[in-house]
Amino acid sequence: MTAVLTGPQRATRRRRTLLVLGVLTLAVVAAYLTVDVTGSWGYALQQRGRRLAAMAVVAVAVAVSTVLFQTVTNNRILTPEIMGFDRLFVLIQTVGVFVLGAATVTTTDPRLRFAVEVVVLIGFGAVLYRSLFGRTERDVYVLVLLGVVLGSTFTSLTLLVSRLIDPNEFLTLQDLLFASFTSVDRQMLALSAVLVALVTLGVWRLLPRLDVVALGRDTAVGLGVEHRRVVDRALLAVAVLVAVATALVGPITFLGLLVANLARQLLGTHRHAWVLPGAALLAVLALAGGQLVLEQLFGFNSSLSVMVNFVGGIVFIALLIREPRQ
Amino acid sequence: MIEIESVSKSYGGVRVLDDVSLTIPTGGITSLIGANGAGKSTLLSVASRLLPADSGRVRVDGMDVATTPGPVLARRLAVLRQENAMSVRLTVRELVAFGRFPHSGGRLTREDSRQVDEALAWFELGPLADRHLDQLSGGQRQRAYVAMVMCQGTDHVLLDEPLNNLDMRHAVQMMRMLRGMADELERTVVLVVHDVNVASCYSDRIVAMREGQLVAEGPTSELMTPELLRKVFDVEVEVHELAGRRIGVPWS
Ligand SMILES: Nc1ncnc2c1ncn2[C@@H]1O[C@H](COP(=O)(O)OP(=O)(O)OP(=O)(O)O)[C@@H](O)[C@H]1O
Ligand SMILES: [Mg+2]
């Protein structure tokens, strides 16, 4: 805080931080794959490898979507999950089963089903952005409140619709909704990995412009960035990534908030070329490390999202309290 | 050259710009004066396509600002807003380097870095270059923002109250620099100023606004009169000739 570092010193420190994160992640990944294997190594590695792959896909999706969302909305507290994106996705899935019947839903090509769900989510994202984050600045507290209201509305609607569903069909729905890292469908995983990779690659070309968009709309326009276009593309990416993450493991509300802010803090920059990899590594660390600790120390299997939300929730409240009131 | 053709803008039924037409010739400094709320910032925002007009249009060197691609326009015209709060934490050098974005696309060439260093030196920001903006005083921060805009190296520069928070020395330096840009590089500078004497001493032309309309425009010497100033600001101002300059003294 007191000592002023020069630009090159900061860059060195950033590189080092990212390197440390990378090494830590590798270590946790290795530990997760090998610790306490009983019986067949081949089987254990295959099982754990798949779980790990699911975590990595979710981690990247959540990290990238949160950072992008915060950039285009110019704030560091709101995330797609806090604004209710993930719970809307669950609602869409539920309504899908209700309207079409479980048989139709499970027999449709998952790619088609997913595409339809994502399109609906994109529509919601566009409406939300236009109405809330348009020209006028809004109080972040109002937005948080709105997110809470939207989120619980979606949850209640989901509950309502699932009550109306035939009990047998409901089982299918539960399989769809309450996926966890331990029960990820292989086909779905492959599809998700490809999608996340494609979206991340697509976003990569936007990064310099996103750095400018983070300065605020007027400054960005003044510097010649086609603000609207960049924001639209970023939101598109956000919708796809949130859908992927939610479809794979269900809502983990505060993971994105946690890793995006931590990455910016640790790396001391808002530049996307640094923050995105940093946040993604942190997310892998949180998920794989958390799962490792839970499985090995406590013998739990699926309460990771509870843990992440607990820690993330505390950070969220801390950020809200620190945020200067406009 | 900046051509503003019958531009109007309303906020919730209230007309803030009322059919404003104005041509700002190439080269030279034009000062925009007027009371608080007269519509100066709004006009500047419309002229620099930060704000869409309800009707009318603005052309910069013949290019319509509403339809010209952003990157093209950003190499011709730079704008400083009145307020410049940012939600990200930047060092002074990082901020100023963003001024090169229209040319570099985010990847600074050696020439870009040279211009950044030059701008930092010009605004005496060298020793502060690696500090974060939130660790600066108001005037230092203002200089950093102006340095970013200057770094854009455009032929047209629109500045909304660039002298905000500046001490006397830095204010004079900034005006001299703008004068130099206008005289030697034939650049077109438009600025909003509240000190009519700055407008009088440094600008070639004055544009006076009141309640969203143009009151008068023309060469500085013709507009620096007690009558006009009274009309624009609703205060009695004596205008004295001092060492060949017209100086307004309001509290008489
Ligand atoms: N976003 C807005 N919504 C509603 N009214 C606005 C908005 N922005 C500006 N106004 C109104 O438009 C009028 C002109 O504002 P503008 O900012 O252009 O004034 P100005 O001449 O720059 O004043 P100042 O010298 O105080 O900077 C004012 O009456 C102001 O209240
Ligand atoms: Mg103003």
Automatic annotation (TrEMBL), chain A:
It is found in: Cell membrane. One of its GO terms (biological process) is siderophore-iron import into cell. Keywords: Cell membrane, Membrane, Transmembrane, Transmembrane helix, Transport. InterPro entries: ABC_BtuC-like (IPR037294), ABC_transptr_permease_BtuC (IPR000522). Its main location: membrane. Pfam families: FecCD (PF01032). The chain crosses the membrane at residues 20-45, 52-69, 89-107, 114-134, 140-161, 188-207, 234-262, 274-294, 300-321. GO terms for molecular function: transmembrane transporter activity. It is a multi-pass membrane protein. Belongs to the binding-protein-dependent transport system permease family. FecCD subfamily. This is Iron complex transport system permease protein.
Automatic annotation (TrEMBL), chain B:
It is a peripheral membrane protein. SMART domains: AAA (SM00382). Keywords: ATP-binding, Cell membrane, Ion transport, Iron, Iron transport, Membrane, Nucleotide-binding, Transport. One of its GO terms (molecular function) is ATP hydrolysis activity. It comes from the Bacteria. PROSITE patterns: ABC_TRANSPORTER_2. GO terms for biological process: iron ion transport. Residues 2-236 form the ABC transporter domain. This is Iron complex transport system ATP-binding protein. It comes from Geodermatophilus obscurus.
